[in-house]
């Protein structure tokens, strides 16, 4: 049942207009970061690490959370149109399958975006003739960023399932980003999903996470993911969707 739901969700994505956005935002954020690095290269002297601070700042703090919100709103868009929720909820498909299939599709899309961003970062570094070798932390930044992105996706998907508006969940995501930055600066970022993205991707600090911080990072992501998913599935089961 879950496999069929995932296949159905993927079919909706194959010919969607979302693909140009998935490509454009990482490209745009990388270009912005590279331009900022090039104009300030006299002060940014730490090679690949300095380049990462610039490209990941635009991408990880702003464009990626917005992209997640767009994807989550898009995968719920068809159900919100023409009262299609009535048909979905009367189909022989479990609420868990509906939520997990949508989350799987969004997670897959964000994984592809992370791969694209990594390639763009490497290409930019070689074009700019970065000294030294590519940081070994890059894989960790990208992977942890993806994990945090899935957690944020569960939150955004929960919002998009309840809210018919396409733009409102995206606006909430933007507000949450600024809250997340504030909590990160206050050294309590582990308690907020959007701050976890900042921590995981090393956006504002490239210092290597300690073993305890790494464990805490993954535990908090798991807790948020399971809690939000359970609440969303419970609501789908017990409450009528606002069609």
From TrEMBL:
Alphabetically ordered keywords of this record: Membrane, Transmembrane, Transmembrane helix
Superkingdom field: Bacteria
Pfam families: ABC2_membrane_4
Transmembrane segments: 21-39, 51-75, 96-129, 141-159, 166-194, 214-233
Protein name according to UniProt: ABC transporter permease
């Amino acid at each position: 049942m879950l496999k069929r739901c995932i296949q159905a969700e993927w079919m909706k994505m194959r010919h969607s207009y979302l693909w140009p956005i998935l490509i454009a935002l990482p490209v745009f954020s990388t270009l912005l970061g590279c331009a900022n690095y090039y104009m300030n290269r006299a002060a940014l002297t730490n090679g690949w690490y300095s380049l990462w601070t610039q490209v990941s700042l635009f991408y990880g703090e702003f464009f990626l959370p917005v992209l997640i919100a767009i994807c989550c709103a898009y995968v719920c868009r068809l159900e919100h149109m023409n009262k299609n929720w009535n048909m979905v909820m009367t189909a022989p498909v479990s609420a868990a399958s509906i939520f997990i299939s949508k989350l799987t599709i969004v997670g897959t899309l964000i994984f592809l975006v992370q791969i694209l961003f990594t390639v763009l970062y490497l290409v930019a570094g070689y074009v700019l003739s970065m000294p030294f070798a590519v940081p070994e932390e890059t894989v960790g930044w990208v992977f942890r960023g993806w994990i945090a992105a899935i957690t944020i996706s569960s939150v955004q998907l929960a919002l998009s399932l309840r809210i018919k508006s396409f733009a409102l969940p995206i606006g909430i995501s933007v507000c949450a980003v600024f809250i997340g930055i504030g909590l990160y600066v206050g050294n309590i970022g582990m308690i907020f999903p959007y701050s976890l993205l900042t921590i995981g991707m090393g956006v504002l600090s490239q210092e290597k996470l300690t073993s305890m911080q790494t464990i805490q990072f993954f535990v908090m992501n798991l807790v948020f993911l399971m809690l939000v998913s359970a609440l969303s599935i419970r609501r789908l089961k017990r409450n009528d969707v606002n069609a």
